[in-house]
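Sample 3 of the quickstart, ligand flavin-adenine dinucleotide:
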Amino acid sequence: MAIRCASAIERALEWTVDYTHQREAFGRPIAGFQNTRFKLAEVKTEAVVCRTFVDRCIEMHKDGGLTADDAAIAKLYTTELLCRVVDDCLQLFGGYGYMWEFPIARAYADARMSRIAGGTSEIMKEIISRTLTPE
Ligand SMILES: Cc1cc2nc3c(=O)[nH]c(=O)nc-3n(C[C@H](O)[C@H](O)[C@H](O)COP(=O)(O)OP(=O)(O)OC[C@H]3O[C@@H](n4cnc5c(N)ncnc54)[C@H](O)[C@@H]3O)c2cc1C
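Result:
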């Protein structure tokens, strides 16, 4: 699920970069507005940090060292992040973001599933919280 979310975040960013450079409002591409550029910069930052942690989890898994709480952290973080990122990206599509013809709309609906399927966010927090006991 974490790998899927890291990929979905990167794809949502690609779609949004493409769209914001094509779509014009007030005589210029919406990618020219500071709000758009800053929002895309935030999403890029989150995508890179997310990918770095997920890649580290893959390495730990390959070495046999990925613990249940590491996996729960990956699942909780990436699924919650995906929902936030897709929501931010969809906003930049305006009304088209709500149309099924645009893949960002499908991504928005699909992202919501990830916080439930494979174990809910609340259960991930239960698993993580069990590690938080005094030494
Ligand atoms: C698209 C999709 C695909 C799925 N695919 C599969 C699959 O292939 N194989 C499979 O086995 N299952 C699958 N599931 C089921 C999925 O794993 C469960 O939906 C998920 O684990 C939540 O269980 P539940 O639906 O019974 O919700 P419930 O357990 O009824 O939870 C309802 C709410 O109560 C909260 N809650 C429950 N227990 C606690 C607790 N102890 N503390 C705090 N809050 C709690 C939950 O977080 C949630 O918010 C899929 C679900 C979806 C949506």
